[in-house]
Amino acid sequence: MNDLNLKDKERETADEKTIDAAFQHLLDTYLASRHRKKVDIITKAFNFARQAHKGVRRLSGEPYIMHPIAVAQVACQEMGLGSTSICSALLHDVVEDTDYTVEDIENIFGPKIAHIVDGLTKISGGIFGDRASAQAENFKKLLLTMSDDIRVILIKICDRLHNMRTLASQPANKQYKIAGETLYIYAPLANRLGLNKIKTELEDLSFKYEHPEEYASIRQKLSFTEEQRNKLFNDFTAPIRAALDRMGIQYEIKARIKSPYSIWNKMQTKHVTFDEIYDILAVRIIFVPKVREEEVNECFNIYVAISKIYKSHPDRLRDWLNHPKANGYQALHVTLMSKQGRWIEVQIRSDHMDEVAEQGFAAHWKYKEGGEITEDEGELNDWLRTIKEILDDPQPDAMDFLDAIKLNLFASEIFVFTPKGEIKTMPAGCTALDFAFQIHTFLGSHCIGAKVNHKLVPLSHKLQSGDQVEILTSKSQHVQPSWINFVSTAKAKAKIMAILRRDNREIQKTGEDMLAQWLQENDFETTTSILDKLCELHELPKHEDLFQAIGDRTINLGDRDLDAISGKKEKDSSISWRKFVPFLHDKKPEKAEQDKSELIVVGKEFNKKKPVIINEETISHYKFSDCCHPIPGDDILGYIDNKNQIEIHKRACPVASKLKSSFGNRILDAKWDMHRKLFFDATIELRGIDRMGMLLDVSKVISQQLDVNIHKITVSSDEGIFDGAIEIKIHDRDDVKIIIDNLKKIDGIQEIQRIM
Fold first, then answer.
1. Which one of 18, 181, 366, 677 has the minimum C-beta count within 10 Å?
2. Is pLDDT at 591 greater than 50 in this prediction?
3. Which of 15, 62, 96, 389 is catalytic?
4. Is the pLDDT of residue 654 over 80?
5. How far is Cα of residue 627 from the mean position of the Cα atoms in its chain?
6. Would residue 96 show up in a list of annotated catalytic residues for this protein?
7. Which is catalytic among the residues 15, 62, 97, 544?
8. Which H or E run contains 571?
């Protein structure tokens, strides 16, 4: 017993030392910054949190207080935030995990810190129904709170970054949920706030847990090619250094290596191998301007000097100096041809621009008095205003809400001019109608067309950077349901949906009144039973749909409806004949019953932490999604659907991304244990230069060399270019890889990929 007590005491002493060292490191980092030195309040917050979390440990076994200290360290060191944020980070879990209230925090630390802690608690907590999308609701709260104080979202990102760094201690199903959520919500948010370094780390950590083998493979390839990259970098930058030295510029040249996630993403979207990615290396020139006000001109002077050494690519000059990105990013990007025949991107930026690029909006207020945020971050406030407008109109589906926000988070920008020459920042891919809604809802809802660069164009016309746009309106114009198909901004989508819903409510009210009047004329009263019979007759799922159809005249009430209500003929004539046709009546339900009996139904005893193992015996117990067609060898996960049955998805599937970020508590780890007995469908797409005998060569490789069964083949040729799709029967992913590797050797094939 004494030995146990002794061990506990030793562990406690070791913990105390670790905690003290971590807090001292935080204080040292804070004291080295340019913020006012409010050490007392930070120490007070630390002691309060330490006491509140005393005796509690994380899953990894370390004392819980180490997490708030780590979050505060990220806020201080990596975002450059001040004492208010550091205190809020230290206290961020106190209200949620202990008996202390927001009022207690306010009494001890003041209203500002209490407000931020309250915001962070709201995001984490909350009680939602089983069917509600908890994450989307959390995200909604996050954005609502962030509209009041941006520090709430910044600390939440710090919290998420530390959780991702310590994700190894979580079970696999939790890892997929948290990683999916991070990629879907937090990485784009970090990107939008200009936190480039943090965004990259969040993406890489998510990738590492979702696709461990592919992550390890890319890391290994990066280390193998490091030596030749270093040589390329040194050879390329030597003449640039000499030119900058002659100009008397104080500078630093860095190599920027593409992150594993960016490389993998490019491999997926462009369907190329690691060796075919040429922009793994980029060069950054960071200089200290001689005159701070002249830093933009000095960027261009450097560009002129280096373009005398190397030939620049005319279409790849990106001027983010005069028109910074919406997240504050400023730089001049130019692509130069190296002596080795490789295009290399060079990013030219001042030291201050570099700080903004790495730390985003945090760098803007970093040097302000006391490090407090002022309200002059124009671009950021515009963005928050857009989000607030979307939040003000409640959307029925949380997933739609996430998608709408995500559209705006990910979008890269273009610059569009009004007729008066004012510049507006819009997401790339937006249409004239998006622009109309961006300026004003009235303009959007009455828009009939636009003049782009003085030429008449339709609403769906996609805008390019530099376009001058004049919106044309008419009072007789009304919002059309088809508009939703070609707008791309979250604001326009939200406004169109809101107007359509309002119009629909009016049509439904008209339809309801028309139905009531018609029933009255035929001596009936409006009852649920009658409405159900009419819905069944017209194959409509809800009463609202029936009112809508009557209101917009797609249903004209008549004798058929009377027969259905009174239970006459209709049943005898047009419905009951189906039961005499065997293939319409008897067989299908039987098969459905059989399928249902094989599928596993998840009960209360089901252990969500254990992986689902898929082998030849158990494969029929699970549903396989049409959205991504997983085959053995793919990284997969399970999802418990609304019927408590398990769907299997690829982890990289877009549907799975939404499920991870919105229904994380229903995600399961899933693993293959197949023995190459069963066959699966896979589709391979080919593209290349057409020639005589191309199809013969392709079928020879698949059927004769590899002895694979071709299920279906479709090929079309246009002006010497052919496109083809081959459906094959294979055992697993390795089979597909072998087939693709062999097909690549055929003369004329340019692009080849397996499609989902």
1. 677
2. no
3. 96
4. yes
5. 18
6. yes
7. 97
8. none
pLDDT at 666 over 60: yes
Please tell me the predicted confidence (pLDDT) of residue 422. 79
Contact 58, 97 (CB under 8 A): no
Separation between Cα atoms, residue 115 and residue 105, nearest integer Å = 9
The reply to whether 432 and 569 lie within a common domain is no
| Host domain of residue 26 | 16-169
d(CA 370, CA 736): 59
- Six-digit token pair at 41? 């309040």
| Together in a domain, 143 and 259 | no
Percent of the chain exceeding pLDDT 90 equals: 19
Q: Is 227 a catalytic residue?
A: no
Query: Highest mean pLDDT: which of 225-234, 271-280, 539-548?
Result: 225-234
* Domain co-membership, 466 together with 568: no
Using an 8 Å Cβ cutoff, are 475 and 446 in contact? yes
Give the tens place of pLDDT for each residue, 703-736: 877 777 787 888 887 777 888 888 888 888 888 8
The answer as to whether 313 is a domain residue is yes
Closest by CA to 114, choosing from 41, 35, 54, is 41
SS3 of the chain: helix, strand, coil, percent, to 5: 55, 15, 30
What total number of domains does the chain contain?
A: 5
Q: What is the pLDDT of residue 371?
A: 42
Give the least confident one: 218-232, 443-457, 576-590. 576-590
End-to-end CA distance of the chain: 60
Token pair of 600 as six digits? 């596993």
Which are the contacts of 672, defined by CB distance < 8 A and separation ≥ 6?
A: 614, 615, 632, 633, 634, 636, 732
